[in-house]
């Protein structure tokens, strides 16, 4: 080996570059995995919240006489788009059909309708 | 009488052009060597998918050397041609020193043309396309630290590079020999075809033979470098990996590696292309084609063409023995560094990582991962390390492609 410095240079450079490239990859794959898991966590959390909110709305609607069309439309859209639980849909729509009088607690439904729109439709 | 004389002359001409007179002792020895490799491939099942076509290519070229002949252009004076054949020929004419010559082309041998795919670096990336379509990167995505184990196993390549230089090989030859340590046949062939094509035969035979010998080479090194307590470590289950991650992974890897090291792009790019075919789920036909028809066809062409470079002159010399020895060193050192890095991770994670999975960073997929599983189960039969070892195993494929890119950049 006439000039060992070239070989040593290739050894050190090669090992350094391999580690550098794979460390960068490790970091980016890990970061991406964390981002995805956070997004999934948020979506799952929203879905859990949606379940709780819709349950509450169901109970409110069952106790009301009438529900304005726009609120029905909003709630229906939210349920259909985000939340594909057919049983709950049936219960909700059954409740809406029962109602035919002016509602004393209309403001409550408007409030919950708006909340759902703000949180889930944006 | 004249007829008999004619028959005898024809037979004598045929005999003189037959292998009995054209072959020398080196060819006969190589025929025996190819027979041994065919036996190892068929009866001992040493990586038969590639070793069998390589061995057969070796047999072909040593029985009929002209199967690898290059095309030639012979110059014949036009006047002489007309006298000999009684008419003018239909060849291009070139004028040299005021005399016209016909440029008469003789075609090359069959394997010369198949070999162009090796020489031009086409076949190995196509094989990587098929490998990518067959590979599940899930265990690696679930535990990205496995990439570091894949990196550490590639240290064997650069240590062997020094060893090859010490033994008197040139820089390019040393680079080609050292890539055997990546335990990746297509990568070894890709690098050798670029840096030192005359060593293609022995390097390919060494690479595939040692890949088949992984179950023999690795276990003693793994047991020597780890304690019983370390081998008994049970790792926690890997997290599930979402489809989005599986789809984004090949894109991320391609972008990062190609930006940082463009010469690795052909291998890594095709590997990731195959993988995105598999993970997207919308190009099932392409994925199946890459995993089956494409890789099989290219394997045949690559194997036979590479084997055909192993003529007597190229193979039967002291260099080949050195290459075999250095290949063994490359594998062993790669395994050792993988396990040692695994021990480092064991210390840093306070015993959560089993060092045995480090040896799987040598990218002999999936054999090296199975060896980690087997050695782990010797200490604890209920320890299932296979999926954990698959992470470093497939990381090693990426690592060896990166190492190949570095060697080509620095030595090409």
Describe the protein's architecture and organization.
The complex is a heterodimer of chains A (122) and B (412). Chain A is mostly helical and 122 residues long. Chain A contains four helices and no strands. In chain A, α1 runs antiparallel to α4 (106-121) and α2 packs parallel to α4. The termini of chain A are far apart. Mean pLDDT of chain A is 63; it is low at 97-117. With 412 residues, chain B is mainly α. Chain B has three domains: 2-69, no CATH class; 72-106, no CATH class; 113-411, no CATH class. Helices cover 70% and strands 4% of the residues of chain B. Chain B contains 22 helices and three strands. In chain B, β2 (93-96) and β3 (99-106) form a beta hairpin. In chain B, α7 (123-134) runs antiparallel to α12 (185-195) and α9 runs antiparallel to α20 (318-348). The radius of gyration of chain B is 25 Å and the shape is elongated. The mean pLDDT of chain B is 89. Classes of the chains: A mainly alpha (122), B mainly alpha (412). The A-B interface holds A 1, 6-8, 10-11, 13-15, 17-30, 32-33, 36, 40 and B 140-142, 144-145, 147-148, 150-152, 154-155, 157-159, 161-162, 165-166, 171, 174, 241-242, 244-245, 248-249, 252-253, 256-257, 260-261, 395, 398-399, 402-403, 406-407, 410-411.
What keywords describe this structure?
heterodimer, A: mainly alpha, 4 helices, B: about 400 residues, mainly alpha, 22 helices
SSE pattern of chain B: HHHHEHEEHHHHHHHHHHHHHHHHH
Largest beta sheet of chain B, briefly? 3 strands, antiparallel
Write down the overall geometry of chain B: elongated
| Helix-strand pattern of chain A | HHHH
Number of helices of chain B: 22
End-to-end Cα distance of chain B: 64 Å
Average pLDDT of chain B, to the nearest integer?
A: 89
| Number of individual domains of chain A | 1
**Percent of residues of chain B in beta strands?**
under 5%
């Amino acid at each position: 080996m006439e000039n060992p410095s070239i070989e040593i240079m290739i050894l050190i450079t090669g090992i350094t570059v391999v580690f550098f490239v794979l460390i960068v990859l490790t970091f980016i794959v890990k970061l991406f995995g964390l981002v995805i898991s956070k997004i999934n966590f948020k979506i799952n959390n929203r879905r859990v919240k949606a379940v709780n909110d819709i349950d509450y709305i169901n109970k409110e609607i069952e106790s009301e006489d009438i529900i304005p069309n726009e609120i029905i439309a909003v709630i229906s859209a939210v349920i259909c788009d985000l939340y594909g639980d057919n049983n709950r849909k049936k219960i909700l729509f059954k409740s809406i059909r029962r109602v035919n009088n002016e509602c004393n607690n209309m403001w409550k439904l408007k409030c919950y309708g708006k909340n759902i729109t703000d949180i889930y439709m944006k | 009488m004249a007829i008999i004389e004619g028959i005898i002359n024809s037979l004598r001409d045929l005999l003189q052009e037959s292998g009995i007179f054209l072959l020398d002792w080196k060819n006969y020895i190589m025929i025996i060597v190819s027979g041994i490799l065919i036996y190892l491939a068929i009866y001992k099942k040493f990586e038969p998918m590639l070793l069998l076509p390589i061995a057969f290519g070796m047999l072909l070229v040593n029985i009929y050397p002209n199967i690898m002949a290059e095309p030639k252009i012979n110059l014949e004076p036009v006047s002489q041609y007309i006298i000999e054949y009684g008419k003018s020929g239909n060849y291009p004419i070139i004028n040299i020193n005021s005399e016209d010559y016909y440029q008469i082309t003789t075609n090359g041998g069959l394997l010369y043309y198949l070999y162009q795919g090796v020489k031009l670096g086409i076949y190995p990336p196509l094989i990587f396309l098929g490998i990518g379509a067959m590979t599940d990167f899930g265990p690696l995505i679930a535990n990205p630290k496995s990439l570091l184990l894949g990196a550490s196993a590639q240290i064997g390549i650069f240590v062997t590079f020094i060893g090859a230089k010490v033994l008197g090989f040139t820089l390019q030859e040393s680079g080609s020999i050292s890539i055997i340590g990546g335990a990746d046949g297509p990568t070894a062939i890709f690098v050798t075809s670029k840096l030192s094509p005359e060593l293609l035969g022995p390097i390919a035979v060494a690479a595939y033979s040692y890949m088949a010998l992984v179950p023999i080479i690795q276990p003693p090194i793994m047991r020597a470098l780890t304690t019983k307590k370390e081998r008994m470590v049970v790792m926690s289950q890997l997290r599930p990996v979402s489809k989005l991650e599986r789809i984004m992974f090949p894109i991320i890897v391609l972008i990062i590696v190609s930006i940082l090291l463009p010469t690795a792009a052909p291998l890594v790019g095709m590997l990731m292309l195959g993988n995105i075919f598999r993970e997207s789920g919308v190009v099932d036909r392409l994925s199946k084609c890459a995993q089956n028809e494409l890789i099989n066809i290219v394997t045949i062409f690559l194997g036979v063409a590479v084997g055909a470079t192993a003529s007597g002159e190229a193979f039967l010399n002291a260099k080949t023995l050195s290459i075999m020895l250095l290949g063994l060193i490359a594998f062993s050192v790669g395994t050792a560094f993988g396990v040692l890095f695994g021990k480092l991770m064991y210390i840093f994670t306070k015993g959560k990582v089993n060092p045995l999975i480090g040896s799987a960073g040598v990218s002999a997929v999936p054999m090296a991962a199975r060896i980690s599983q087997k050695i782990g189960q010797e200490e604890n039969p209920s320890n299932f390390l296979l999926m954990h070892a698959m992470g470093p195993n497939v990381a090693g494929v990426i690592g060896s492609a990166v190492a190949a890119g570095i060697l080509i950049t620095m030595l090409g």
